[in-house]
Amino acid sequence: MRILLWYWGRRGGGAHFSLCLARALAQRSAGMALSVSRQGDLIDAFRALPVPRQEVDTYVDLLGFATGFLRVRSLTRGLVAFAHEQKVDVVVSAMAHLWTPLVAPALARAGIAYVPVVHDSVQHPGDGDTFWEWRLRRELGATRAAVALSDCVAAAIAARRPGLPVIRLPLGALAPSGIAGAIGTAKTSDVLFFGRIRAYKGLDLLRDAWRLVVAAHPGATLRVVGQGDIARAAPGLGDLPGVTLEPRWVADEEMAPLLASARAVVFPYRQASQSGIVPLALSLGVPAVATAVGGLVEQVRDGVSGLVVPPDAAALAAGLLRILDPATRARLAAGASAEGARLADWNSPATALQDALDRLLGTAAAPARP
Questions:
Q1: Which positions ≥6 away from 5 have C-beta within 8 Å?
Q2: In Å, how far from its chain's centre is CA 263?
Q3: How are beta strands 306-309 and 288-291 bridged, if at all?
Q4: Which pLDDT score, from 0 to 100, does residue 368 have?
């Protein structure tokens, strides 16, 4: 099965996921190719892979995004031509780009099997994307199969398109800059929240829980790091004892050391598909406290690699207090390390993807040759 991995995004979890998957596929498949954005933050890492590569110009700012729509038709023709040139059997979209719903139907019309990795099957509260539902519907309408990274997303896809084959892959640790060098980083905080600041991530729930935590455990520390308006998401959080707020983007090379510097990481989400931070934290031996929503219950094994609690302040506070106990934390950290060793190996999801595509598409996936 010859795979063209397609990712035109610039940075963040999608870029990390695409690179990790591309590296693993390149190691095990002689028939792999890439189509990536020249403006992507990880372009040098993609260029280092020994596979055929198409680079396209996308955008880095709002003006470039607006004017870029004028080039979508030519970019579409270029992607189709590259797929034919490489004689690929299937185009796998590693993560949807804003232009994906405009391009994907053309792949189907050209007789090229299209398979997207669907990271989110429902729009998260507060995302504010007016066209989100239209984009997903159009993308799924062009697919021959879909990839899901959690059971809850797989079930939602099946409900949207009954009969569509869904490939379930494990989500590995997203660490393009490496994991080994971060292990052993000095612990500077008890609890870390890390990620883009969004309403559904429950920072207000964490604020209410932290009041209970510091009342019972004076001296506990909480570090909140992520791009967005933390004060707006959880007014008063920064005024609580032991809390440090860092509203900023975190560079790739800082991600692993940042997570490794915490004794535990918290996911107080009100809704979730899955989290890319969970497997990276576990691979660093950092246990998690997560709310029992969406795919988080699949990623964190309660009592083994962390604690899973109901999504309310009292339960979250109880979980955080439990993990502040040194003996409990040490036991869960050992479980996290064992679980994380598996998640750091991307050969497993790459093999699972290729085997599933072989099984589901086979020779029927071959594109019509020009």
A1: 18, 21, 22, 25, 32, 33, 34, 35, 92, 94
A2: 22
A3: parallel
A4: 39
User: Under a CB-based contact definition with an 8 Å cutoff, are residues 114 and 104 in contact?
Assistant: yes
Note the pLDDT of residue 122.
Answer: 75
**CA 182/CA 286 separation, integer angstroms:** 11
State residue 128's pLDDT score.
58
d(CA 58, CA 65): 7
Q: Is the dihedral of CA 34, 174, 99, 90 positive or negative?
A: positive
Alpha-carbon gap, residue 211 to 321, rounded angstroms: 12
pLDDT reported for residue 336? 95
Torsion of CA 236, 240, 242, 245, to 10 degrees: 10
The answer to whether 227 and 196 have CB atoms below 8 angstroms apart is yes
pLDDT for position 131: 72
Q: What is the pLDDT of residue 181?
A: 66
Beta bridge partners of 194: 225
- Nearest of 94, 88, 92 to residue 31 by alpha carbon: 88
CA 267 vs. chain centroid, Å, equals 14
Six-digit token pair at 327?
A: 């003996």
Q: Enumerate the β-bridge partners of residue 116.
A: 93
Query: What is the Cα 4 distance to its own chain's centre?
Result: 20
Side by side, the strands of the sheet bearing 90-93 are 53-56, 32-37, 3-7, 90-93, 113-118, 146-148, 166-168
Separation CA 275–CA 174 (nearest Å): 10
Rounded mean pLDDT for each run of 10 residues along the chain, 370 residues in total = 90 88 84 91 92 88 70 89 93 88 89 90 66 79 90 90 91 74 82 93 96 96 95 94 94 88 96 90 95 94 96 97 96 94 88 90 51
Place of tokens 């991307």: 346
Structure tokens at 331: 């036991």
Instruction: Assess contact for 203 and 276: CB atoms under 8 A.
Output: no
